[in-house]
Structures are given as C-alpha cells and as structure tokens.
Amino acid sequence: MTGPSLVRSRAAALFSGLLLGAGLVVAGMTSPAKVTGFLDILGHWDPSLALVMVGAIGVHALLLRPILRRPRPLFEATFQPPNRTRVDGRLVLGAAVFGVGWGLGGVCPGPGIVDAASGSLYAVVFTAAMALGTLGVLVERRVRPDPRGESLDRDPSFAGESALRP
Amino acid sequence: MEHFTPVTALAGGALIGLSASLLMLFHGRVAGISGIFAGIFDPWTEDRSFRLYFIAGLLLAGVGARLVYPSTLPAGTPGLAVGAVAGLLVGFGTRLGSGCTSGHGVCGLSRLSVRSLVATLTFMATAMLTVTLLRALRGGS
After folding, report:
1. Does A96 touch chain B (CB under 8 A)?
2. ipTM for the assembly
3. Do A155 and B113 touch (CB under 8 A)?
4. Consecutive 10-residue runs of chain A (166 residues): their mean pLDDT?
C-alpha cells in the first residue's frame, strides 16, 4: 500500500480510534467511579454500563454480518479473524486477573489510554503499568510458544467469513 | 440508582459498536484495545503504524474530552500506587486471556464467541468480587 491509499488507511485507523474513545467518554466508561458503581452490585448499584454493552453489542452484531459478506476489507487484503479457538486455563486465568485489576482500579485498557490523554496522572500511571504488564506475557510467549500451534486455527465464531469465501 | 444514566450509556455504547464495525470494514480487524495497544510493544509486529494511528485516535478523544467538557476528567480516583498495581494486572491479564472489555466483551459477544463469553463472565465476576471485597474491607455499606 502506497501513497493516497496509505494515507486513507491511516486516517481510517485514527478515525476508528477517535470514535471509540468518544464512545467511551459519552458512555461514562472513562470515569473510574462510574465503572466501580456498576461493578458494585451489592452496594449502590449503577446499572448504566450494562446498557453500554447492550448498545455496543446491538450495533456491532447488526453491522458485522453485512461487513463480513464483503470479499475483503477496504484497506487490507483479508479479514483477520481471532486466531485462538480453545477455552483453556490461559483464557480463564487471564480474564480473572484482568477482572481483579479492573475492579481495583476502575479502569480497563481503552478508558486508561483516553484518560491519560485528558491529563489524569492516575491514568498515565495505570497505562504505563499496563504496558509493562503486557510485556511480561509477550516475553513468555516468545520464550515458550504455544505447543499446540493454535495460532493457525480459526475461531469458529468467525465462520461467517470463511464460509462465504472459497 | 440516582446515578443511572441510560441515555448516554446507550448512545456511548452505540458509538463503540459503530467504531468496532468500522474497524472491521476498514482494516478487517477485531477492535480489541488491549491487543492493539500491546502489539505496539511487540518487536515482531508488522503493523505498528496501524496500531499507532488507532491509539492516537483514542488519545485524541481524551484531549477532545478535556477541551469540550473538562468535568469528564476522572475525579476521586484511587491512589497512584493502586493505579500502578491495577495497570500491571490489567496488562498481564488481558494478554494472557487475549482480550479485554472491548475485544471479548463487545466484539466477541457480538459474534457469539464461546471463548469471549467465558472470558467476559470470568472478568465480570472477579471484578465485581474485587469491588465488593474492597468495600467490605473499607467497612462501607
């Protein structure tokens, strides 16, 4: 990809990020107190964030099907499906650890990055620590690659795409 | 329930869903923020520029939020040490589990992925448990 199409591709990535960030701000996900209020089901529970999920999943589920019916995305040669298929200990342990961090700090990755840019020192520290945390797994994956070679598999939930193309 | 904000929650959620759809239409990718972010630090990554532009978009949203309505700046956050520990856990956990609230919670559930359903139920459960335990420890009600 060269010239104008590269510029358009990068602009598209920038725009997608901007829109997602705007969504997080409007939804209230960038407020740790709001997030904690949602997670605090036995306290003064604020169910708002459940509706964020309803809105996001509703729109995405509706639009995903027609998009995957296209022969290819606009700026890449192919759709890139998620490359792991198995429900394993890694998935559950990773999700469990993430949940503890999310509950503790009231911030998940997107809002952390957005808040860091809006000048919250708390979010800057969170995001820097998050980068450090990802490096741990990165090093582990390089040292000990997945023995089952799962990365070559395709997630069956993404079958819409492979079923529609030869 | 006095803080319940159903309209902005639904509208913000719809924007998130629209963005995830556009990313699939434009680049054929799942909008998993933790994965896109982590890839920046992977020396073997082949698409750092895409990742950097997407993250730059998120940062731009933060700057915009600060300018448009400064009250969105998070107030009453936990201490910086808590932020650091939470960040480490979130970074490590999302990579080990291959996704976060956006990748598993929004994109995965939208395509009915069993992996993402298991992951989402797990992180919701441990997050709710953590908040409940913390409140109990603080002696609040």
Report:
1. yes
2. 0.95
3. yes
4. 85 98 96 95 95 98 96 94 86 98 97 96 97 86 59 46 36
Q: How far apart are the first and last CA of chain B?
A: 15
Q: Does B64 touch chain A (CB under 8 A)?
A: yes
A103 closest CB neighbour out of B73, B74, B130: B130
Smallest CA-to-CA distance from B118 within A155, A135, A161, A101 is with A155
Structure tokens given for B88: 């480490």
User: What pLDDT, on the 0 to 100 scale, is given for residue A141?
Assistant: 73
> pTM for the full model?
0.91
pLDDT for A160 equals: 43
Domains in chain B: boundaries? 76-141
CA atoms within 13 A on the CB side of A128: 12
The secondary structure of B8-46, three-state, reads: HHHHHHHHHHHHHHHHHHHHCCCCCHHHHHHHCCCCCCC
Could you give the 3-state DSSP secondary structure of residue A87? coil
Cβ of B20 within 8 Å of Cβ of A20? The answer is yes
Q: Are A122 and B97 a contacting pair at CB < 8 A?
A: no
Q: B74: nearest CA in chain A?
A: A31
* Maximum separation of any 2 CA atoms in chain B, in Å: 50
Shortest distance, CA B7 to any CA of chain A (angstroms): 9
- Locus of tokens 């956050």: B77
Task: Over range B83-91, report the average pLDDT.
Answer: 98
